[in-house]
Specification:
31% of the residues lie in helices and 27% in strands. It is α+β, with helices and mostly antiparallel strands.
Length: 559
Amino acid sequence: MSNSHGRYVGIDLGTTFSAIAYVDSHGRPVTAKNRDGQAVTPSVVYIGPDRDVIVGQAARTRAADEPDRVAVNFKRDMGDEFYHRRIGGREFSPEALSALVLRRLADDFRKSVGDITGAVIAVPAYFGDARRRATEDAGRMAGLDVVGIINEPTAAALANAFRQYLAAGGSTIQFEIAAIAATAPSTTLVFDLGGGTFDVTIIRISGENFNVLATGGEVRLGGVDFDKRLADAVSDDFVRHHGVDPRDDEIANGRLLSACEGAKIELSTAEQVAVQLKHMGRYLAVPFTRSKLEEVTSDLLTRLQMSVEMLLEDALLTWDRIDDILLVGGSSRMPMIHRMLERVSGKQPNMATAPEQIVAHGAAIHAAITQMVQSPVAVAADGGRGMVQDALTEAPDDPNEDILSIFDREVVEVATRVRLSDVNSHSLGVVVRSSRERKLASSVVIPANTPLPTSRTKVFGTEAANQRVVRVLVVEGETRDLRGCTQIGECVIRDLPKGLPQGSPVEVTFKYDKSGMIHVYAREKTTQIGSEASFTRDSGFDPVTLEELTDAIAQLKVE
């Protein structure tokens, strides 16, 4: 079926699985099935010798026999120049591999639902600026108009709140009366353990307002790490019995990891499984219990627990202030996750409905809200109910401008009242020369988990006497060590007069808005000479390169 107006879609570009969703005319998020009839598509790419590209389950199946031509877990490399290994002897950027997955999702959507006008892509809350830019680039390479980026836990909380509201008998007409998720404000901790990344976020929900209080996690911690620990234990047993290590063979190791992933999933409901392994004519069936899995992954569980406890400290909250613990991501199904959270919190965690799809649903809701707000028909100048009603009543006859051809009137009225606020996931600072450490270091101006928008000012001193130029280098990161930081941009004060003493005061102001734009204002206070600069999450590629990559991907046949 086709829709001439096109929809805004929400996409969960996951490490192991991806999904695309949209909001139907009645305001309900729906996951679009792929060509295989499945709600999720494996984030796996096969590159053939003739540049033939296969994405999804078929690519995942080929990984067993042609691992050198299959890319997996490339979301972990987002922001890096290249995927961590060659595919078919060639180097690929994580953005290009991600774009192929997005292209497959979009193609399937167009065939089953209709045209796509814009897309909101969900990213881990702990993604820094470079990784967010890379994700936007991937969307553009796939031919999508990326109208927004939303943090995965925020998306999950938004979708879960709306599901609870509908389950309680709420309607889109009485959206604000039901206060979306509850009759009173609530604070939710979203624990999102996916295949390759981990996010934990605390969100305050009050009526139509979703306020992120704090966010944390690890970009390189997820279900695949649990798979690898199980595979290591099985391999060690194989070495003891047969004297050869299956991890030394890429094909055997790939098959082992796949078997261990299945065993891990099975252990969520069974107490014991057997992992079978054949290698070099030798065979071994290794019995594995749930308690053994928990034993070999105990340090990973400790890392998850520490992230949760540190986040509560950052938010200045205790467990009695948390009303709900929402589990998101397929890996959160492991019983050890439930028990750990129940032990530290004294509360029963709640598994999200369809944990592999809920992030895409939340992104779709956010996309629909964006579409309605951006529509000339649905925008109210003062944000009030009456103005929205007037705008809808006076809608032009042009069907391309009529948002009501896609959504019911009540859905539009509701959506334009929902408000999302977020925090910055990483600290922003200025490069200074530390007198204590006698080296360049980062001095934080806006700490992580500061509510957005925000404005912060800090005063520094010039490094030397008679300094004519001051370079304010803006960096992102949690450590003073610049090796752990990412440079965002610079603001330069020029033409300072001669004779300024060392340590002359330089006032630096950061303004960070909701869209992710960073405004920097710097001035030498004695002379009042200053400068300003703004940085946005624009494409990490230059426009020409991005266009070339987009054209190249568009010409590929993606199966």
